[in-house]
Amino acid sequence: MRLSRYFLPVLKENPAEAQIVSHRYMLRAGMIKQQAAGIYSWLPMGFRVLRRIEEIVHQEQIRAGHIPLLMPTLQPADLWRESGRYDDYGEEMLRIRDRHGRDMLYGPTNEEMITDIFRAHVGSYKDLPLTLYHVQWKFRDEIRPRFGVMRGREFLMKDGYNFDVTKEDALHAYNRHMVSYLRTYERMGLTAIPMRAASGPIGGDNTHEFLVLASTGESEVFYDDRVTDLKLGARDIDYDDKGQVAKVCEEFTTLYARTDETHDEAVFANVPEAHRKVGRGIEVGQIFYFGTKYSEPMGATVVTPDGTRVPVHMGSHGIGVSRLLGAIIEASHDDKGIIWPEGVTPFPVGIVNLKQGDGAADAACDALYAALRAKGLEALYDDRDERAGAKFATMDLIGLPWRITVGPRGLAAGKVELTSRATGTSEEMSPEAAIDRVAQIYAGR
User: Fold this and answer.
1) For residue 4, what pLDDT is reported?
2) Angle, CA of 336, 337 and 343, to the nearest 5°
């Protein structure tokens, strides 16, 4: 993509309304525009990252054996009355009445609707286990939306729902989700901590939140750092032919991890001193097992091998896809701008032409751009007639992992400069070597 033809409305100054790093940089880097309190348009750069994150989520869900579908944003209120949640959910639910006087709602979650789909089409234990999921926009009418996409009213979420005959089977699904989430966060360059949590309006006794460590996180986190060591091994845990995972998941549940709201200093003191850590975290997902909370009142049952009909055991599992984008920035930035991990970057590499209009420099940049594209990598080529300093500032702000700088002086020696955004280190090399280096970095991604 040539920057002269792209829509990237960057801002030089920090917007006054932005209180946290991710909100400031998303506005300054031209990623979002606020349309109403807690509601944003996703501009091209932000939309590209959002889709990268969503793609990783889909890949890890499908790898775990989960099946994608798509449910609507609007739901009939009668489904929620069946489960008993319509009146209990509170003012966060946006309630709507259509032109025929039917009560509707803008879905904050989908337990009722997925249960309705299940009961209409599944009736035998032979069809289980089954996990269905989708990535869809949600709305929760936060009383004080703030912090940009971190605490918005409209947000993109992956929510999945498992159906199993027994509690034991449902807990296998719970463990499978835990591993798939840890893999998901790891691929995004994040360190995530699973933490026992309150179930809230979803319900159930078993639930874990996933907190991403970030120095600017919203909550103080007290944890046993062995939980992150286990996380780093998530890529080596695999699913068997029944979709089950090793009992390593049970180890997560026994390691200490709590926010300042539930921290118990006496219990924390039992963690070996070398492993006691304190940091800050951002919630980016949660998994639940809630048994028959929805299947019993809504009649979601299956016939077992002995001919009896029983309500299915269920769980739900959510990842805040749009919230993750803000969390990644909170965890990976400096005073110049964003530092995108390679797995989610909007463009793998930027090309900076130090002397636009110079024949040799223009030709070299065009050749680099074409060669990268031939290797399946779309570069962002800053071909604007701007000062070098302005081009570098833009590249630092938008945070692409790699930058290739091209100028007449370097070209005279047959060299371009390859720079890492994360470390700031630069290396001079031939254009061909720079292309090969970047291609190797992204091979297999």
Assistant:
1) 95
2) 135
Beta strands in 111-250 (DSSP E): 130-139, 154-164, 192-196, 206-213, 219-224
Encode pLDDT of 163-189 as tens digits: 999 999 999 899 889 889 989 999 999
DSSP letters, 370-437, are HHHHHTT---EEE-SS--HHHHHHHHHHHT-SEEEEE-HHHHHTT-EEEEETTT--EEEE-HHHHHHH
Could you give phi then psi for residue 344, rounded to 5 degrees?
A: -125, 0
User: Which distant-in-sequence residues (6+ apart) come within 8 Å of 231 by Cβ?
Assistant: 182, 185, 186, 191, 192, 193
**Fold of the CATH domain 9-338:** BirA Bifunctional Protein; domain 2 (3.30.930)
Q: What is the pLDDT of residues 26-49, one digit of tens each?
A: 999 999 999 999 999 999 999 999
Residue 242: how many CB atoms within 10 A of its CB?
11
Cβ atoms of 420 and 339 closer than 8 Å: no
Domain with CATH 3.30.930.10 in the chain: 9-338
Cβ(342)–Cβ(348) below 8 Å: yes
Q: So what's the architecture of 349-442 in CATH?
A: 3-Layer(aba) Sandwich (3.40)
Q: How many Cβ atoms sit within 10 Å of the Cβ of residue 265?
A: 7
Residues in the chain: 445
Is the model's pTM score more than 0.85? yes
Q: How confident is the model at residue 247 (pLDDT cuts 50, 70, 90)?
A: low
In this structure, what token pair is assigned to residue 75?
């739901």
Q: What is the pLDDT of residues 268-289, one digit of tens each?
A: 999 999 999 999 999 999 999 9
